[in-house]
Structure formats: structure tokens, C-alpha cells
Amino acid sequence: MTVRSQGVIAPDVDADSGWWWEALSAGRLLLPRCDACAAWFFPPMATCPRCAGTAVRGVEAGGRGTVYSWVVVHVALDPSFAGDVPYTVVAVDLDEGPRLFGRLLGDRRPAAGAPVQAIVEVIGGTAVLGFTLV
Amino acid sequence: MTVPGAATPFLGSTAIAGIGMTELSHASGRSVLSQAVEAGHVALDDCGLRPADVDGVVTFSLFNDSVASQALALGLGLPELTYALDLNLGGQAPCYAVMHAAMAVTCGLARTVLVYRALNGRSGTRVGSTRFAAPTSQYRYPIGLTAYPQYIALWIRRFFIETGGTDEDLAAVVGAQRAHAAKNDRAVRRDPLDLDGYRAARMVVDPLRTVDCTVEVDGACAVVVTSLDRARDLATPPAVIAGAAWSTPRGSGLDIADLHSYADWTRNCQAHLAPRLWGSAGIGPADVDVAEIYDCFSGVVLMGLEGLGLVGRGEAGGFVRSGAIGSGGRLPTNTHGGLLCEGYLHGMNTVAEAARQVQQRAGAGQVPGAETCVVTSGALMDGSALVLAADR
Predict the structure, then answer these.
(1) What residues of chain A lie within 8 A of the CB of B129, using their CB?
(2) Which residues of A touch B132 (CB under 8 A)?
(3) Are B216 and B122 in contact (CB under 8 A)?
(4) pLDDT digits (tens, 9 = 90+) for B359-375
(5) A121, B256, B307, B340: which is deepest, by most CB within 10 A?
(6) CATH for B10-125+214-390 (3.30.70.1350, 3.40.50.740, 1.25.40.10, 3.40.47.10)
(7) The complex's ipTM?
């Protein structure tokens, strides 16, 4: 099992997500939050998906969450990851609410509900989100 | 939350008539247009209509992998189209496209509508592994979450966590559909597959193996939609459009592969549209004779059976392992072999099979006396479904 990632595809950052990637590159996990209704959400967008409010800011997230689901990729379906297989991708429900995805780092097997901690990996100059079991 | 049939006036008064398909192959060596035109000709010939009778065309495509409705009109030499619709959708679309054709007929915008899907899905753009530009691709691709088999596998894993399913359930789906496909000359995969054979197949993305994945193909499929009155005068028996529903559930996200915003990965579009589907048809899940459930991947059949209420929560695995979805079972399902075996025309071919069943034209795979069939389109958040019925 891959301990850390090797392959990466650079993200197509857009006008709604630039601040999120900028923070991640600085090692910080932010989440969009609505000032009007206090909803946390993901992915970043200019309006709140709960109340349609426009006062959306990036707020520091704790990075803790639990495993909702996961897959183990045995066949790289994009050549960028041919050197990484097998690797595990986890879907994590962060304590703040939003569900995010990342590589599971380390050699332990995931389980439903297992607690995880987010970390930021930098691969080939690109910051990506990963998780470790705690 | 039921919707009476009176609120959807095309139900019970429109029908699928002719059906046309090309050969399905790994390398057609042909243009998408020529295959679309062939499927259109075959569908019209099937029911005894001519191109001059067609005044509407509905189609769908992803990533510009098909030809536009106006191109088909040119290729078939159709006169003026009074209704044309090009949907930017994938597997969610076939039932929805038929719904639109039926609406156009009922509203008087067209009399006879060709609905088609055509693509070089194997030798051209392969949806299953092609990068595409979408708002949320930036959160998946960098970490190696790059393709549909992986997205669906995430859902299947969660479905198993909550319902107690195992790989034996997936093997039962694949095995049953292989057995159906053995009777279908159109099917690309026709070899039988037992549990040992299933487990010997290569793991692609755990929990999905190669044999759990649809087989991408080149080809085209078209159906003719017209009024029930007109269909009764044609060479094919009408497959009456008796129920229909679409759903874009809350939290469907920013694009077709945005999994961030949709909370429950164990209940897909079928669970959301089921009450309206059955309400629109005036029947319940116990009343159908055959089911054609969208199956880009095997596990989606389990979710579809539960979502439609054909089985209860947590019962899909036991149901498929009992042989219920096989020939002679309680509810023969994906009687053409499904997209797993016949080939991936994004479910247009699944709608065609549903129509054949209630037309009693399904050949060796015919479910004896099938009068009512439920057919679905879509695996994840949004999608559609129809109930088709024999003309009685």
C-alpha cells in the first residue's frame, strides 16, 4: 500500500476556488462558510447552497472527520497514477459537515466511521488533501 | 407524494413503436453519423414508417461524443423538424428523452419523434476513463479519483456498509445478466460466469472488478415515439408509455460527477423518483413483470431494485442471490444482459429492451406474457424512469 502519493494532476482552479487552493498550498485547510446562516459547505462557490446568501468566507477547518466510504484503486484509470497503484481514496465527513476526498496515507486499512485527520501533501509542486487514520 | 396520471397527459396516450440498433462493436470503423442514420432507418422500417413521417428528433450526448439532432435529420433526409432537442446528459437521459418525445407529441409540437443515442464509445471518446472539464474535477483528479468506476465504487462500498451486502451479491447480478445475454445475439459478453469465475476477474477498483463494469462499445440505438392512436396503425405493437418520472435530488451538485453535496450514497435517483413514477402509472412495484435497470456497474442494479421499492431495504442481495432476476425468476431483470453484457449505449438500448418485452418481441429472452416493464436511466444523483405497458 502506498504510504505517500507519487502521481498528481494539477487542478483546474477557477474563480470560485482560487482562495481554497491558495490556502491549501500554504498548508491550511479552509472550508467555505456562510456568514448569514452559519452553514459550512463544499465545494467553494460564491453563494450559500442552504440560504443563497452571498456573504461566504473561507474559515479554518479542524481537519478531523470520519470515513464515510473508500475505494482501493488497483488499475490506474489515468496514466498519471500508474506508479501509485494500489492506492486508497477515502470519502471523509469532516466534523464541520462537508464531505471531502483524499488519499489515505499510511498502511492501515480504513473502516466505516474510523476517525481521520487531514494533512496536506505537496506532490510535484501541487498541494493535495490527504488523510491519515488516527 | 403521488401524482395522478391526469397531471401528466402524455401517459397512456403515447407509445414506443419501432426500434432500431446497429451492430455493437469495439471498433466500428464508421462515423457516428452513419451509425445514427442506420439505427434511425431500422427503427422506421421496423414499424413501417418512412423518413418523411418524422417531424421530431430527441438525442443526448456527453463531451460532444455524438451527432446533433439536425445532423441526423440531414442524414435521414427528414423534412422540417418541428421539435428538436439535444440533451447534454449521459446515462440519466434515455427515459427522459422518451418523456420529452411523448410530451412533444401530446402537445402537438410533433407527430412522430425519433429518439436516439449514437457514439463510438470504444474506439472514440471513452466516458469511463476520459478526463472532462467540470467544476468539481479539480477536487477529484489531483488525488487520483479520476473515473466513473471509482465514483460508483465509493457508492457501492457505502451501500454494502449500510445494507450488509457482499461481493456475492455483485457476482449474482453479473451471473444472471450473463445468462440473459447468452440468448441475445446483440450482446458483446455472452459467456457464463459463476462465483469462482467472478472472483478470478481482475479487480479494477475494490469493490468492482472488470466484470462489474459495462463494456464500452461503438454503436447506435433509436426508437420511434408517437401517439398511441397512430402506433396502433403501425407494423409493431405499441409499447404504451404508462408512467414516467425524472429527479434532480437536492444536493445533486455542480456537475454530473460532483459527489460532495449529495448526502446519501446508498439511495440514488431511483429512490427519489419512485413515488412519482408509480403514482403516475397508477400501479406499484409488485405489479411489474420485468425490470430493466440501468447498470453501468453491477452494484447499481442492487441500488435500483431497492430504490424503486421492488425489494425492501437490505433485501436486494438476497433477492438477486435467490435467482429472482434470472430467466423464470420472480422478476427477470436486464433481460438483454444489460449494459454489462449487451454494451454501453448509455441505456438507450435498455429502453429498447423494455419496449421489446411489452411488445412480446424480445426473442429468446422474452419473459412470457410480460405486460408491464419498469425501466430506469441513471446511476447516481439525477436520473429518470418509465413504466411501459402492453396495449390492452
Answers:
(1) 77-78
(2) none
(3) yes
(4) 999 999 999 999 999 99
(5) B340
(6) 3.40.47.10
(7) 0.97
